[in-house]
Amino acid sequence: HKTKTINLQSLYCTSYYSHAHKFANHVLRSNSLYTTQSSGTPLLKNLLDQFLPHNFPRIKSQKLNMRISTAAAVLLSLVPAAQANRNTLNCLDPASVDYTKDYFPDKVTPDFSKLWEITYHNTYKILLNKATDKSYAFYQCGTELPDGIAEQHEDTWSVPLQDGIALTATSQIPTLEQLGARRQVKGYLGDPVYISSPCMQTLAQETDGEGSKILEAVNDDELPSYSSTPGGTPKLDFINANPEIVILKDSGTGNNTLNWNAYEEDGNKATYEWHKVMGALFNLEKLANEQFEESSDRYDCASDNAAYILSEASSSSRRLSEPTRALAETDSPRKPTVLWASKAWGGGWDIARCDSSNEYYCEFATACSATLLHSNAGSIPVGGSDDMNMNLTEFVEFGKDADYWIYSNYIYADLETDLVEGWADISQFKSVQNGHVYDIQKSGGSAWFEQRVAEYDVALQDFCDVVELYDDTTANHERMYLRKVHPANEIEPIGDLGTCEAAFMDLPWESRASSCELLRPTTSSAASIKFALVGIISGLAAMYVF
User: Fold this and answer.
1) What is the Cα–Cα distance from 343 to 399, expressed in whole angstroms?
2) β-strand 388-389 against 134-140: which pairing, if any?
3) Quick count: other Cβ atoms within 10 Å of Cβ 87?
4) Which DSSP state fits 207?
5) At what angle do helices 43-51 and 17-29 cross, to 10 degrees?
6) What is the C-alpha separation between 223 and 275, in angstroms, rounded?
7) Cα–Cα distance between 268 and 408 in angstroms, integer?
8) Considering only CA atoms, which of 172, 202, 175 is closest in space to residue 189?
9) In what order do the strands lie in the sheet with 216-218?
10) Which of 147, 227, 301, 402 could cross-link 339 (Cys pair, CB 3.0–4.6 Å)?
11) Which pTM value belongs to this model?
12) Alpha-helical runs (H) found in 354-446
C-alpha cells in the first residue's frame, strides 16, 4: 500500500481497553486512514489523539517509538487502503479531455437490486432500467459522446447533472438529501402538502434574485380538484418552461423523463440501492456506496442481534436490561407475534399481506426474529384488486392473541376514541392489554411514506425495539417512526422532522440510526481485525516505559 510517513513519537498511550475499543471501531469505519490532513498532521495520529486521553506523559523512549511504529505498520496492513481517486464533480475543459482516461474511477454496481445496472466507458456511463427496458447515456460534462451512442438510448445527459432534477414522488427526496444534492431539485410534480422534509419545504418558499421560486411545487394538472394550492402551475407548463430538467417518473418517455422504478424491487436493501443510481447522476458514486454500506451494516447488525437475543433469552423479558421471571427449564424463547393492521378507508380492516408489493414490513418482522400475522382472507372486497379486508368479527379472531400491534396508519386521538366501534372486543386484545400498540407517526404523518425507504435501517431498529429484541444495554435506541399509542397515559406525541433554516440548508446529512455493535461471539475476519486493532492499541500501553 502507498502510505504516508506517520510520526508516532508524540502520541499518548493508555491501557484502558475502552479507548482502544472505540479507536478500533473508528478505524474500521474510516475510509481515509492513509490521507494527510491539510494541517500536515497524519490522520492516524489524529485518530489516536482523539481516542486516547491527553493526561499521560509523552513517549520518550526511542525503543518504544520503534515498537509503536511496528505496531502501527501492522495496524495499517489490517485495514483496506482508502480509495484516493474521486469522480469529477464539475465540467472538464473540452480542450484538455483525454478520451482514453477513466473519468469515473468510483463506480457503482447493484448487490441486491435486480432492476438496474450501470456500465462505465471512460467518459460516459450507461444506465439500463430493466423494469422498463430503457437505457440512458450519461457523459462527463465537457466531453462528447462517441458517434452513434446517443441513438442507441432513450435519452442523454451530461453529468454531474447541470440543469437540475424534478421529482414525482416524495420517496425520491431523502436520497438526494443524503447526497447533499437537495438544491439540485428544481421541481416537485405533485401536491407539496405531502412533503415532510423541512429543508425541502424551506426551499419551496425561497426565491432567486429575480423572484422566481428555487423549487417549484407543481400540482397535478389532470386532477385540479385534488390541489391544496389554488392556482397551482400545471405540470405541462412547468415541463415546457424547463426543457433541460431531468424528470424522474416510473414510466413514460419524452420530456427528459428518466424512469425510476425503485418501488418495484423486492426487499428493503434492493429498493434503497437505487440510491447508488441517484449518486451516479451527480458523479457521487463513492458517497452513495459508503452510505449504502453503512446502512446495510446497521440493518444486518440489528437483525443479527435480534436473533442472538432471542436465542439467549433467559427471562420472560427479551430486553437485555430487564431481567424478570426466569424461564422454566421446560420453556424456550419463542418468536414474538406481531399484528400489522389498521382500519381500511373503504371499510373493514386492512391486514398485512406478505406479497411482493407489501413485503417490506414482512421483511422487518423476519429480520427482527418476529412472526408477522398476515392473510388475504376476509369478506370485504378491495376495489380494483383481488385483495380482501376483514370485517370486525374476522379481525378480532385473527389478531386478538398477537403480542404486539403496529397500527399501520394514523391514530389521531387515542386508541379507544379512534376505534370506538368494536372497542369492547379490541380492548381485550393481548397487545392492548399489555400496552404494546404503536402507529407510524413518531416523525409525523407523511415521514413514514417519504423517509422510510431511505431510512430502512432506522425502521428496522424501531421494529426490533418494539418487539423487545433490541440491545438496549450498549446503545439505547430512540424510535423515529413507530409511536406508542396505548395505554392512554403513555401515548407518545405525534412527531415531526423539525425545521430547517436557510442558513443550515447545506449542512452534511447525518443518519438518525442508532449505532450498533454485534452481540454474537464471532470469528469472522471483520471481528478478527477489530480484535487485532484492540490488541495493538492496548499493547502500546503495555509497552510504555518512562
Assistant:
1) 13
2) unpaired
3) 22
4) B
5) 140
6) 30
7) 17
8) 172
9) 216-218, 185-189, 165-167, 246-249, 257-259
10) 402
11) 0.78
12) 359-367, 392-399, 415-418, 423-426, 430-433
Other C-beta atoms closer than 10 Å to the C-beta of 209 total 5
Q: At what angle do helices 456-466 and 359-367 cross, to 10 degrees?
A: 60
Question: The C-alpha cell of 474 is what?
Answer: 450498549
Q: What is the DSSP letter of 502?
A: G
Task: Report strand pairing: 337-343 vs 349-351.
Answer: antiparallel
* pLDDT per position as a tens digit, 84-137: 448 999 999 999 999 999 999 999 999 999 999 999 999 999 999 999 999 999
- Which triple of cell numbers denotes residue 498? 423539525
In three-state secondary structure terms, 42 is strand
Which triple of cell numbers denotes residue 78?
Answer: 489490517
The label of the residue with cell 424510535 reads 479
| Nearest partner of 338 among 320, 351, 321, judged by Cα | 351
Closest among 274, 260, 273, 275 to 169, alpha carbons compared = 260
Is 60 exceeded by the pLDDT of residue 524? no
Question: What's the Cα-to-Cα distance from 381 to each of 149, 151, 350, 397, 421, rounded to whole Å?
Answer: 50, 48, 11, 19, 20
**Cell digits for 340?**
400489522
Element (DSSP H or E) covering residue 185: strand 185-189
Under DSSP, the state recorded for 413 is: S
**Rounded (10°) CA dihedral 451, 455, 459, 461:** -150
> How far are the Cα atoms of 50, 309, 493 from residue 469, in angstroms, in the given order?
33, 6, 24
Residue 199: CB atoms within 10 Å: 23
Q: For the segment 238-257, what is each residue's pLDDT rounded down to a tens digit?
A: 877 888 889 998 888 777 89
The dihedrals phi and psi of 534, each to the nearest 5 degrees, come to -60, -45
H helices then E strands: how many in the chain? 17, 17
